[in-house]
Fold this sequence. Notes:
The structure holds two protein chains of two kinds.
Chain A: H1 7-26, H2 38-43, H3 50-61, H4 64-77, H5 84-109, H6 114-122, H7 125-156, H8 163-184, H9 187-214, H10 217-231, H11 245-259, H12 263-270, H13 275-284, H14 286-304, H15 315-323, H16 326-364, H17 370-393, H18 397-412, H19 415-423, H20 429-449, E1 456-461, E2 464-469, H21 470-492
Antiparallel strand pairs in A: 1-2
Helix pairs in contact in A: 1-8, 1-9, 1-16, 3-9, 3-12, 3-13, 3-16, 4-7, 4-14, 4-16, 5-11, 5-13, 5-14, 6-7, 7-8, 7-16, 7-17, 7-18, 8-16, 8-17, 9-10, 9-14, 9-16, 10-14, 11-18, 12-16, 14-15, 16-17, 18-20, 18-21, 20-21
Chain B: H1 2-11, H2 13-22, H3 25-29, H4 41-47, H5 64-87
Amino acid sequence: MNTSLNWVATGVFVFFFVVVAVMGFLSAHWQRGDLNKLDEWGLGGRRFGVLITWFLLGGDFYTAYTIIAVPAFVYGAGAIGFFALPYTILVYPFVFVVMPRLWSVSKRHNYITLADFARGRYGSRTLALAIAITGILATMPYIALQLVGLQVTIAALGLHGSRFVNDLPLVVAFLVLAAFAYTSGLRAPASIALVKDTMVYIFVLSAVVWIPLKFGGFAHIFNVAGQALASRSTTGTLILPQSQYLPFATLALGSALAAFLYPHTVTGVLSSSSATTIKRNAVLLPIYTLLLGLLASLGYMAIAAGVHVTSTNDTLPSLLEKVFPSWFVGFSFAAIAIGALVPAAIMAIAASNLFTRNIYREYIRPQVAPSEEATVAKVTAILIIVGALVFVVLGAQSYAIVLQLLGGIWITQTLPSVVFGLFARWFHPKALMVGWFAGMFCGTAMAWSQNLKSAIYPLHIGGTTLASYAAIDALILNLAVAAALTILLGGLGVDRGSDETVPADYVESTI
Amino acid sequence: MSESTSSSGLSILPQDEAKSRVKPVMESRSGSWKWFFLLLLPYIGLLWLPLYAKAEPRLLGFPFFYWYQFAWVLLTMFLIDFVYRRTR
């Protein structure tokens, strides 16, 4: 780590950051629409084609925190850190099968959130509220984590001073973010994602070509990393040991199932121009997964390059500083920092869509006019961003990481209502509510029992212990409860609630 | 800059949607749904760890555990694209 400010790197960093901020403001004029309507502000008017959706979802899903955390995880824990690769592969068959149906029914009924869908499909305000609250709860710490990504890169530039000086760039960056989210809505992150992702591709590809050349090739890097991991006191290994098979597999599957239930990814999906756009993106988005895999291997390169860090989050910045000239370090850090703004903006917009549609309009002011609805959403987005900023500036990052861990478990519990609901109206809405509650409770309790340090829970069944991702265990309970109660309530003849959708709504149409 | 990219992004749309409009919904789905089972392959290939949690054979210096995962990225893209073409 630098102990004094790196002027060249900082200059390049600031230059790119300013260019991108200006773009954010200008994008209000791009594909112009009436920004006083919620679907124009919060979904970009559902107009993004294949290419823009690719950049938007890519920038949204592979966040700044991912860029920092994945190499850090691999550096610290070895093979299990690579679960990120199966995770971001397995997510796409799921997206391909499920998300076009969500897009079609949402377009048909003007749904903006998953809670809108649940309300329409099951005629249940309570279920919609449960889904809205789960979404908001899971998203808030995610925004705070993006700030952590930003903070790590700013610190790595060598800025050291009073607490006020250290936090100033972060505050400025997020006020800029709040301002362009307010004025441009989803169009801002969409246009910025284009620049940011290009920058990320450039720096990652340069790193994976240049570093092996400099440090004796991939074979050598893997050998050195394997030996280094074996000599450490921690459990990390180069090849996944049998004891980690189930944690690895359940983490990958659970994360893949959860990924597109998050409000920010759903917002990305719904903002695209057609169900076909989503299908084509399911084919093209794995290109980002290749990038992520290369990024993960940077964790091993850091070991081979002799990078030593006190906090594993510094792995990637330290590696880049060690091997690249200052100007390129500035460029890479700018890519990561801007990489924080894109998902943070989409998350704030998505969470405020949920609040506005499913809490404000549903419970506070049912008669709200469209322009007022848009204004409420814009103000809410700013409050959410400022809230996340206060959280991080007050030094509550460790809570953000814990809450993000819980968030993944929580958001998975909306799967039965949403995913099953997109294919059949079999579950009883009341059964889904109880299942959701059981899953939330059980998942939280499992993480709690691990002192909120890990989402891997050692489940004792009979004489064997199965260590697996708590989100999956909780989901299984959730589904079992919902299915059993559906049969029971059906037998008792309890009213199944209304359904405003018909099967044809779920298949691609241009209406 | 945004102007040109957005138009190229959108230009792919009209013909795609036109196709799906011409083809009746049921016809495009009947019989072709079986192709969707191909999409289960990545789940089997990646969640069954005994298949690939090993170092050999290596490829370009990458232990098997790693290059196998990278190979599935490309294979999955291919599979989804194949199913997309067969079912649209």
